[in-house]
Specification:
alpha/beta; 3 domains; 434 Repressor (Amino-terminal Domain); six-stranded mixed beta sheet; elongated
Length: 352
């Protein structure tokens, strides 16, 4: 028999059920001594290493946590997951990452099919809990079919949705926790700072228009300008997506549209860096001729020329908060300490 022996193979070789093998693995005292010895002999003979799922068939606990993201190359997801995994490992839990890679997929049916399949795989594989960081939950209009899939997941295991204060279409449940990531305060911090520098011709670039994050940041940008009697037209708002290329394309759009500006607000650092590259490649403008700020700091900003004035959302504290909430929920304990402070802060760079 090959080395990839399964619990089903062990059950067949020992002439017992799969659940009996699982009980033996978990040292269930209700298993008869003769059966215990018979199954153990087969396990040892074939050097079977039981998976967490096999162990959890009886105990109903696998110590496995599923985490869903839509693009692990996004620095926000990457940093959050790295910190979370470290905390969970220290607490005795294993993190399994499900990267849907749907962030750049425009086919709505394809995105729905992929993310629904992921949730169903998590349900089938006996995870203890799920943390959802991105994907369809980031949409302004979440498909009804996906909401139903999430309801099924939440009914079966603790689920933390990170980044949103709530999703009104989902029913309240003891299994459902929201960990909000405010988008209004960071944007206000940045735009108010840039206004104090006496800039008055603003452009907003980046962000997918179907995402609630884009909606919050763009609307806050407009509201702050209007509160300060600075006019803003939709012609000066260019939503496309969250990546380097989108910043570059925004630079092309601004140049081709011949827009006058002295300040640019980017959805995040990657879009801001892409914009700088586009301006450098396509114009004779000097970076000192306009201000550039970003609504979300990424660590790679430290290597940008110029370094970009940006807002740190304190992802380390956010991830540690998720870990604390999850561990307390799984171990049926109250939080021993208050959650970390996740207040955003403005990081001054060289771009404004």
């Amino acid at each position: 028999m090959n080395k990839n022996i399964t619990i089903k193979d062990i059950a067949k070789l020992a002439s017992v059920s799969v659940s009996t093998v699982s009980r033996v693995i978990n040292h269930d005292p209700s298993v008869a001594d003769a059966t215990q010895k018979k199954v153990s002999k087969v396990i040892n003979e074939y050097h079977y290493q039981p998976s967490m799922i096999a162990r959890g068939m009886v105990s109903k606990k696998t110590n496995m946590i599923a985490v869903i993201v839509s693009d692990i190359t996004n620095p926000y997801f990457n940093q959050f997951v790295a910190i979370l995994e470290k905390r969970l490992l220290l607490a005795g839990y294993t993190l399994s990452l499900f990267d849907s890679q749907t962030a750049l997929t425009t086919d709505k049916d394809s995105v729905l099919a992929i993310e629904t399949k992921i949730v169903n795989q998590i349900r089938e594989n006996h995870f203890d809990a799920t943390i959802i960081l991105g994907g369809l939950i980031d949409r302004l209009n979440i498909p009804q079919d996906y909401l139903k899939t999430l309801e099924n997941l939440i009914s079966e295991m603790p689920t933390i949705i990170v980044g949103r204060a709530n999703i009104t279409e989902l029913p309240n449940s003891e299994n459902l926790t929201y960990l909000n990531r405010d988008q209004i305060i960071p944007t206000k911090l940045l735009v108010n700072y840039m206004l104090k520098q006496k800039h008055h011709q603003f452009i907003f670039i980046g962000g997918n228009a179907s995402a609630w994050i884009t909606n919050d940041r763009t609307n806050t940008f407009k509201e702050v300008l209007l509160e300060n009697n600075v006019p803003i037209s939709d012609d000066y708002i260019f939503n496309n997506n969250f990546y380097f290329q989108d910043g570059y394309n925004a630079a092309k759009h601004v140049i081709q549209s011949q827009l006058s500006f002295d300040a640019v607000v980017a959805i995040n650092d990657r879009v801001a860096m892409g914009f700088l590259r586009g301006i450098k490649d396509l114009t004779n403008l000097d970076f000192s001729e306009f201000a550039l700020g970003s609504c979300e700091f990424f660590e790679e900003n430290a290597f940008s020329i110029p370094r970009i004035t940006s807002v740190d959302h304190n992802i380390e504290a956010l991830s540690n908060s998720a870990a604390q909430l999850l561990i307390a929920t799984l171990e049926k304990q109250s939080l021993q300490t208050s959650l970390p402070d996740i207040t955003p802060k403005l990081i001054l760079g060289e771009s404004c």
